[in-house]
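Homework-ish question, so no full write-ups if that breaks the rules, but can someone show me the predicted structure for this set?
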Amino acid sequence: MKKNLNISAHDRNRQIANENRLHFNANKILTLNLIGSPGCGKTSILEYTVNHFDQPFAVIVGDVKTALDSDRIIHSGNQNAFAIETGGGCHLSAQMIQDKVKNINLNDPDFLFIENVGNLVCPSSFDLGENLKVAILSIPEGDEKVRKYPALFIRAAAVIINKIDLLDLMDYDIQRVREDCRIHNPEVQIFETSAKTGQGFDKWFDYLRIQYQNTIS
Amino acid sequence: MNEHETIIHEFALAEDIVRTIGTRINHDFENISQINISVGSLSGVVIDSLEFGLQIIMKEKKNPSVRINIIQVQARAQCQCGKKYTLRSMFDECPACKSLQRKIISGIDIVINSIEIRENQKPVKNQGDRGGIAHEEKS
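A: Not a homework solution, just the prediction itself:
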């Protein structure tokens, strides 16, 4: 006997993600899921944000091992940083976020940045309950990442190209990267930043404020 | 949280697939003869790994003989001109207007289409009492 189901394999994760989203929206928190390779500067971007952004935010950092990255956020001056150690897992799931949020006090932030496990493949298909998925690239990684990892760039509302201060030193075709991003998602917003020099962060922060106003306020 | 959940992408998906199926069949895993799944060509899922994960989990559910049938579904896009077309590569342009400005409309998801259940294992019930018509599921 055949039993038709026609259910997405992501259905269970999506249900929990939707619960998370309702919880965050009810608490007036705009949530961003930051996805990028190891070493692209996800934590450095958040460190810069601690000292230069005027709205309160919390951070949850997923890493395979250690709380080194959430410690970096705390040391840069934001105590609302928490670690999830996946213990081998290549991505965060909605359940992990729900379990974590139940056990911590986010201290009423405007934003929650979830720094996913450094990986361009697995995190892209697991909704955590975020309002926006943000892909983070960096100049030294090379200009083919958008072509190689389409699943992330189809879903990302925004792309940050970090370490832009190295552009002149590297053989990196930034126009090609911009075009590739727009092929995957014609409405994508692209930002070019350097967490070292602060270049480009004004536009990124403006984008965050507008998203907050449009979604939460 | 199950110990598999965090291992790899495809294992986490396989766990969710088995859990989802379990809720639809009252966790009677032993009588499933086949699981039919379609995987979008842009889902980022390695079919062999997903199949391997499902086999291991179904073995734990005391059903090592289940057939896992996974088919790949080509992604589809809709161009800004309105034309819908199949994407063999991410950089296939619209066959009508040659544009690359389009939205992906399918091929990024993994769908549990159906399962097949061994009927000889099921107790025979007489359902003819109400109106005399036995309910049968479509096969």
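Now go work out the reasoning yourself. Hint: Chain B has one domain: 9-118.
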